[in-house]
Hints:
Layout: H1 2-16, H2 21-30, H3 32-53, H4 59-87, E1 94-96, E2 107-109
Antiparallel strand pairs: 1-2
Helix pairs in contact: 1-2, 1-3, 2-3, 3-4
Amino acid sequence: MKGICGMRQLKALVCRFPAHELTIHRLYRQDVTFRTVCIDYEDAQRALQHWQARSTSSAHKAKQFRQILGELEIELLGRIEASLVFNHLPARGVAVVTDLPPHRRVRVQG
């Protein structure tokens, strides 16, 4: 069950940041905080869709949820970018590109 929910939350995020798909999947598996923010992001998207479908009197609520989504996107993208930088730092002269599937990973001697 957890996998199904996780995929739904990731689908929206991957659609928003397709260039970071592998990193998003890796972080979702490995980072509890990232996973929690993904859930918040999906909840905020549903709320936005709900308020957008209502009458024009709910425009203020929709605006609030657009702002929340923007803030969550900034947090998620910051975590994605930090992960990319951290995972590409050389450790004792060796950098491993971990954002690739295992069969495509490369070791670079430094």
